[in-house]
Amino acid sequence: MSETAPWLDDEEMTSWLSVIGVVMRLPSALDGQLRRDADLNYFEYGVLAALEHAEEQTMRMSDLAFVCNGSLSRLSHVARRLEGERLIARYACPTDGRSTLATLTDGGRERLATAAPGHVRLVRSLIFDELDRDEMRQLGDLAKRLLTRIQT
Amino acid sequence: MSETAPWLDDEEMTSWLSVIGVVMRLPSALDGQLRRDADLNYFEYGVLAALEHAEEQTMRMSDLAFVCNGSLSRLSHVARRLEGERLIARYACPTDGRSTLATLTDGGRERLATAAPGHVRLVRSLIFDELDRDEMRQLGDLAKRLLTRIQT
DNA sequence: TCCATTTCGTTGAAAGTTCAACAAATACTA
DNA sequence: TAGTATTTGTTGAACTTTCAACGAAATGGA
């Protein structure tokens, strides 16, 4: 990435603006519904949802941060808030003294149940109602390849 | 959007997780380079870039907010900062007393020139180096359709 | 073993964003 | 045209995220 790269041409720019438009606007669209329905933002929802799907409904903080696509610091602050609301609990990892394990509480499960139906409906209405199965698969495959690069 | 929607099946979920992964991680990847190279975040860069491409390098605040995919309030705060650094200037619109016009200054143009090469290189390395022309067109078309729904 | 390095998580402060309230100007309508 | 509603933009407070610094625990060589 050291040599001078050419600028984007018109066609590239058009595509890029659509992509970045989705990237910039989707989070606030999702946050809005979650805030109204369950007083959560998407990152908080993601934390609860990730824990629900995890074995024992428990994950290490750093793994949780990774699957939630956020920094460990961000997760740490959010975990403090969620713990304050008794939606998750944290305790020291018995096998690695550096690690902290986070687990979903009953309250967290309930809150997730409050948020989820509206969230799924919204995601359907914004994404899956617009794209058919094949298109969605294409989008997912392209996004997966980009994600590999971004995640470095 | 009122009836109970079915949950996402495995294939849908896999695609969705890739999409949301890009949505969540791309902004911080872009912010990092811009902060290092030119002490800007992506939203600020977008404001300067939008003005540069505008006629007279000038836009109404609310139009600017729209093309930058942000709220007017967010833009207003950012504009105050950018104006403080003399990267943009604001003045009342002569034809509509409610409106404010923002325009790029020489300093703003210079800052953009500092930021742009690295930014374009990064976007190329993350996006265009991974996808060929045809794939990028596909992605752009799919994203454009989603954007239409999200932008309501 | 000992020491340097890395990993893990938290913290407080700084920076940024959202939200609700507001004022000013324009547009609408009866 | 008077009164109401809408559009536009700003503001301050509350909230969230980032950044850099830190301590504790584990790892890896010499």
Keywords for this entry:
homodimer, mainly alpha, 67% helix, globular, DNA-binding
Can you walk me through this structure?
Two copies of one chain form a homodimer. With 152 residues, chain A is mainly alpha-helical. The first copy, chain A, has a domain at 36-121: Winged helix-like DNA-binding domain superfamily/Winged helix DNA-binding domain (Arc Repressor Mutant, subunit A, Orthogonal Bundle). The first copy, chain A, contains six helices and three strands; from the N terminus they run ααβααββαα. Chain A has helices at 10-38, 42-53, 61-67, 72-84, 106-128, 133-150; strands spanning 58-60, 88-92, 100-104. A three-stranded antiparallel beta sheet of chain A has the order 1-3-2. In chain A, β2 (88-92) and β3 form a beta hairpin. The radius of gyration of chain A is 18 Å and the shape is globular. Chain A starts with 9 loop residues before the first helix and ends with a helix. The structure holds a DNA duplex (30 and 30 nucleotides).
What distance lies between the first and last C-alpha atoms of chain A, to the nearest angstrom?
15 Å
Instruction: Give me the Rg of chain A, rounded.
Output: 18 Å
Spatial strand order of the main sheet of chain A: 1-3-2
State the fourth-level CATH superfamily of the domain at 36-121 in chain A: Winged helix-like DNA-binding domain superfamily/Winged helix DNA-binding domain
Helices and strands in order, then pairings?
The structure is a homodimer of 152-residue chains.
Chain A: H1 10-38, H2 42-53, E1 58-60, H3 61-67, H4 72-84, E2 88-92, E3 100-104, H5 106-128, H6 133-150
Antiparallel strand pairs in A: 1-3, 2-3
The structure holds a DNA duplex (30 and 30 nucleotides).
Protein name (chains A, B): MarR family transcriptional regulator
GO molecular function (chains A, B): DNA-binding transcription factor activity
Domain HTH marR-type (chains A, B): 10-148
